[in-house]
Automatic annotation (TrEMBL):
Main location: cytoplasm
Organism: Deinococcus xinjiangensis
Listed SUPFAM superfamilies: Obg GTP-binding protein C-terminal domain (SSF102741), Obg GTP-binding protein N-terminal domain (SSF82051), P-loop containing nucleoside triphosphate hydrolases (SSF52540)
Sites where the protein binds Mg(2+): S173, T193
The OCT domain, residue ranges: 346-435
Gene that produces this protein: obg
Keywords tagged on the record: Cytoplasm, GTP-binding, Hydrolase, Magnesium, Metal-binding, Nucleotide-binding
The protein's name in its UniProt record: GTPase Obg
InterPro entries according to UniProt: G_OBG, GTP-bd, GTP-bd_Obg/CgtA, GTP-bd_prot_GTP1/OBG_C_sf, GTP1-OBG_CS, GTP1_OBG_dom, GTP1_OBG_dom_sf, OBG_GTPase
Upper taxonomic lineage: Bacteria, Thermotogati, Deinococcota, Deinococci, Deinococcales
Physiological role: An essential GTPase which binds GTP, GDP and possibly (p)ppGpp with moderate affinity, with high nucleotide exchange rates and a fairly low GTP hydrolysis rate. Plays a role in control of the cell cycle, stress response, ribosome biogenesis and in those bacteria that undergo differentiation, in morphogenesis control.
Subunit structure: Monomer.
Top-level taxon in the UniProt lineage: Bacteria
Length: 441
């Protein structure tokens, strides 16, 4: 199966079911009361992190996900069933971005972690909800809310405890194979590793273990997208400890400077991670040369261990040093947590605009022969409320008028200069403004 660490999908949560407009019917009962039940909630779209998957490839072939709608409410106060939630299983380490805003909406770093990425719409209330002392038989109900729709980019950043970082052919794959049970392709040419490879390393005595990732070779300019750079640099950000693998036969000092420069350009916080240096291929040089290189690497302030992946030299010490330097997962996760977009988005502030509208809805003048004065209402949540009664607009007009009055819309219109008989426009709906301070629901 091919390795895929970026995938674009479209998700649509379920719509809420409409509330019921119903009246009780029974033998010998001439006029029953309202008994419309509420509609069910629409299903959510939920990301769920699972074990045993190291690529987003399993989702290929299905790029669109739609959750079921909630059922309609029914008479006798029966509530409609909620729509079933849809779960999308992804590898641990998956981050989800809203394509339109670029914001992080989910960051799954532990097995079983779940995050709603598209919320189902709420169900509408049945007509039984809208009774009052003056409205004992409401002939309207509330419609359900549309489910959230999103275009989402999934990015997999493999979660490994330790990441091997180095230039092509520095011996990372050989080191991974020597330390763990992984069996990567090993050859004497650059870019043998075309995707991250994970291995598990056990402590020599005890049950402790860590996962080790061979990150494909970085080249100069990787942080700008050259070579395989950006394809795999993201995986380094998920590791708790970095092991810089340097070839002692090349120029390890200059290579380490260049490696750190690429990491700094991509994400400066990467250089704050715990790190050490594995000076590889020491079997190819004299001992005094290897020691001299170790002394020169001291300027970087990192532990340096001389190893030979080919002959097994120094691997036990390297393994033990990694165990000792490994940061606690909880502390690491807290420091590396991504900022998630808030679940609730506040309603837009109320905005009222005025215009003279001589041709509104096909009528050039109003009854007094003057151009029509129109007040357009935006924000404040009023359009969302009114849409939920669009099927019963005439019957619900009085209820909505009193609702908007209680919520301060009429006072806001009055302060803006509205006069009796002016038109109030909310979305595609129009009403006549009246100034009746004594009107009660």
């Amino acid at each position: 199966m091919a390795f895929r660490d970026v995938l674009n999908i479209e998700v649509a949560a379920g719509n809420g079911g409409d509330g019921s407009m119903s009246f009780h019917r029974a033998k010998y009962l001439e006029k029953g009361g309202p008994d419309g039940g509420h509609g069910g909630k629409g299903g959510d779209i939920i990301l769920r992190a699972i074990e045993g998957v190291e690529s987003l490839e399993r989702l290929v072939g299905k790029r669109k996900f739609k959750a079921p709608n909630g059922n309609y409410g029914e008479g006798r106060l029966r509530q409609g069933a909620d729509g079933e939630d849809i779960f999308i299983d992804v590898p641990v380490g998956t981050t989800a971005f809203d394509e339109d805003t670029g914001k992080v909406i989910a960051d799954l770093v532990t097995v079983g972690q779940e995050k709603i990425i598209a919320k189902g719409g709420g169900g509408g209330r049945g007509n039984s909800t809208f009774t009052s002392s003056t409205r004992q038989a409401p002939r309207f109900a509330e419609l359900g809310v549309a489910g959230q729709k999103r275009r989402v980019r999934l990015e997999l950043r493999l979660i490994a405890d330790v990441g091997l970082v180095g230039y092509p052919n520095a011996g990372k794959s050989s080191l991974l194979a020597a330390l763990s049970r992984a069996n990567p392709m090993i050859a004497d040419y650059p870019f043998t590793t075309l995707s991250p490879i994970l291995g598990v390393v056990a402590r020599e005595h005890g049950d402790e273990r860590f996962t080790l990732a061979d990150i494909p070779g970085i080249i100069e300019g990787a942080s700008e997208g050259k070579g395989l750079g950006l394809e795999f640099l993201r995986h380094i950000s998920r590791t708790r400890l970095l092991v810089y693998v340097l070839d002692v036969t090349r120029d390890p000092i200059e290579e380490l400077r260049s490696l750190q420069a690429e990491l700094r350009t991509y994400d400066p916080s990467l250089l704050e991670n715990a790190a050490l240096i594995a000076l590889n291929k020491i079997e190819l040089v004299e001992a005094d040369i290897a020691n001299m290189v170790v002394d020169e690497l001291a300027e970087f302030g990192l532990p340096v261990l001389k190893v030979s992946a080919k002959e097994g030299t120094g691997l036990g010490e390297l393994r033990e040093t990694i165990f000792q330097m490994m940061p606690e997962f909880e502390l690491w996760a807290e420091r590396n947590a991504l900022e998630i977009e808030p679940e609730e988005v506040l309603a837009e502030p109320l905005k009222i605009t005025f215009r003279i509208d001589p041709a509104a809805r096909g009528a050039s003048v109003v009854s007094d022969g003057q151009p029509e004065r129109v007040w357009s209402v935006h924000g404040g949540g009023f359009e969302e409320k009114i849409v939920r009664f669009s099927r019963y607009m005439e019957e619900a007009a009085e209820y909505l008028g009193n609702l908007f009055k209680r919520q301060g819309l009429y006072n806001a219109l009055k302060r803006a200069g509205a006069r009796e008989g002016d038109t109030v426009e909310i979305g595609t709906f129009r009403f006549e403004y009246f100034d009746d301070e004594d009107k009660k629901e």
